[in-house]
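Fig. S4 source data, part A: sequence.
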Amino acid sequence: MSDVRQRKRKHIEVCLREDVQYTTRTTGFERWDLPYRALPETDLGEIDTRAHLFGRELAAPLLIGAMTGGASLSSVINRNLALAAQRLGLGLMLGSQRVMLEDERARPGFQVRRYAPDILLIGNLGVAQLNRGYGAERLREAVEVIEADALALHANPLQEALQLGGDGDFSDLLPRLRETVPAVGHPVLLKEVGHGLSGAVAAAVRDVGFAALDVAGAGGTCWAKVEDLANHGRVRHPDLVEWGIPTAQALVEVRRAAPGLPLVASGGIRSGLDIAKALALGASVAAVAHPLLAPATDSPEAVEAELRRLMFELRAAMHGAGAANLAALSGIALHAR
C-alpha cells in the first residue's frame, strides 16, 4: 500500500501548494439572489441554525467535507478537523478508507471518535470498489471500525480516469448498489467528488436505498485537476479538468429528481451566504473541505475560526432574509439574476 500512501501525501501537497480550483466554471450560486429584507422581523441573536442528519443534531447545517486519509499528515489533519467539529457541534466526513481496509497500519489516522465522541461522523469509500470484490460486509467494516454513523460512497469516474492506475471499471454498478446498500445496516449516501451529480443519476438511484445524496458539484476543487498536477506537475488535460455540473445546477436537478431524499450541498461552498442559498435550493446541509485543509495542518483552533466565520455568515444571511430558522429559509424562493 506504499503507492497509495504516497499518492495520498501527493494529493495533500498539491491541494496546499497549487491552484486546484476550477478556472472557467463556477458553482452557479452567483446566478441566484437570496431576497434581502430591510425589516426582517427577526433577532440575530435568536436565529436557530440547528439541523438534523442521520439521527444526529448539528449546531448548524454544516459538515466538514471529505479530504484525506492514509498519509502521515492525514492523521494530524483528521485529528484537528474532528476536534473542531466536536467543539462546534458540526459533522465530519472522512477521506477514502480503502487504504485503511487494506492496510491496518493506516487505521489510527481514521479513528477520530476519541477526539469527537458526539459528532456526526461519516466514513467514505469509492463506489468503484464494488467491482473489486467489496460487498456489504466490507462497507459495514468501514463504518464500524471507525465508529461512524454513516458511510459515503463516492462516485468519481473522471478523477479515476486521470489518476495513474485509477479504477476505470464503473460498469454494472446500479444492480450491485441495489443489492449491497440495503444490506450494509447503516445509512449510506452517494456523493460525487466535485464534478456533480445530475438529475438523471439521482433518478437512477431512487430505488437503491440511499439515505442521502451529496451533489458535490463543480466550481470548487477539481479532483481531475489535482490528479493531473500530482501526476505531471502541470495540467495536461485543460478541457477535462473544467468539466462538470455546477453545484447550484446539480442541487436544482437532484432536488427535482429525488424530492424525498436529504441532500448535501458541496463543491465550492465558500461563504455562509452560499450555504443559505444552497439550503433555499433544497439542501439539508452543506459541506466545506478545501478552505479547511491548510488550517487543519495548523491546529483545531485554526479550523474552528474558519468554521465560526461560516456559521456567523449563515446566521447573518438568514437574519437579513427574515428566516428565523432553517424551515423558514427553505421556504424562501431565490431570485434568478
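Fig. S4 source data, part B ends here. The radius of gyration is 19 Å.
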